[in-house]
Design a protein that fits this description.
The complex is a heterodimer.
Chain A lengths: L1 H15 L12 E2 L4 H9 L4 H13 L1 E2 L5 E2 L8 H31 L3 H6 L3 H12 L1 H11 L15
Antiparallel strand pairs in A: 1-2, 2-3
Chain B lengths: L1 H7 L2 H22 L14
Classes of the chains: A mainly alpha, B mainly alpha.
Chain lengths: 160, 46
């Protein structure tokens, strides 16, 4: 009986959740055709560092009614706008993490690891940064060789 | 002199120098490619 109820509940949830219609946001227009954007462009200070960005946005971006470029999430041909920054962020975050990890692991092999946390060993740190640049490949390699994760026997399990 | 050099390699100072280097790098990118942001990557900026 319990199973039957679970099945009925599953079916209910399955069919009552309808994926939201994925219509494109039609209110966005290329910035060059947006009157509000043109207004902003005209009233901005006339200098290289205002003109150039406005020209770039006019060519490539989609503007809303407020005349500002919008980040578009509802069409695939603009997926790069979001995926690129996400990819750069993840890469840099991984670079920082991998650099610190390889530096700490390298200092542990030396005579005074604590001291090297307070006074940075610059040549070693730079080596770690260079190593960190290839972190996606290194991570895969270490995962496959089993170095990245702890062994099953090293994980303490509380008695049951 | 060697003490001063060692002082320069202390973690807070190295962190500060690193931040200054990264900030300079980012400012140079913005100066050379104004308008570079989402949607304009790898597209010719006029």
């Amino acid at each position: 009986m319990k199973r039957l109820f679970a099945l009925v509940l599953t079916l209910f949830i399955w069919f009552s959740i309808v994926p939201a219609a994925s219509a494109e946001n039609a209110s966005l227009v290329p910035c060059s055709e947006s009157p509000a954007f043109q207004e902003r462009m005209k009233s901005s200070p006339d200098s290289y560092y205002f003109n150039k960005p406005f020209e770039a946005y006019a060519q490539h971006e989609l503007c809303g009614e407020d005349g500002l470029p919008h980040l578009v999430l509802d069409r695939l041909d603009r997926a790069g706008d979001v995926l690129l920054p996400i990819g750069i962020f993840l890469y840099v975050a991984g670079l920082i993490g991998w650099t610190g990890r390889s530096y700490l692991r390298a200092t542990k092999k030396g005579p005074s690891p604590e001291q090297k946390e307070i006074f940075i060993d610059l040549p070693l740190a730079l080596q770690s940064v260079l190593k960190g640049l290839t972190w996606p490949a290194l991570a895969v390699q270490e995962l496959l060789s089993g170095e990245l994760t702890a062994k099953e026997g090293d994980i303490p399990v509380s008695p049951r | 002199m060697q003490y001063f050099q060692k002082y320069l390699t202390s973690a807070p100072l190295v962190a500060t120098f690193t931040l200054i280097i990264i900030a300079t790098f980012l400012i140079l990118i913005q100066l050379n490619f104004p308008g570079l942001q989402y949607g304009t990557y790898f597209k010719p900026v006029p």
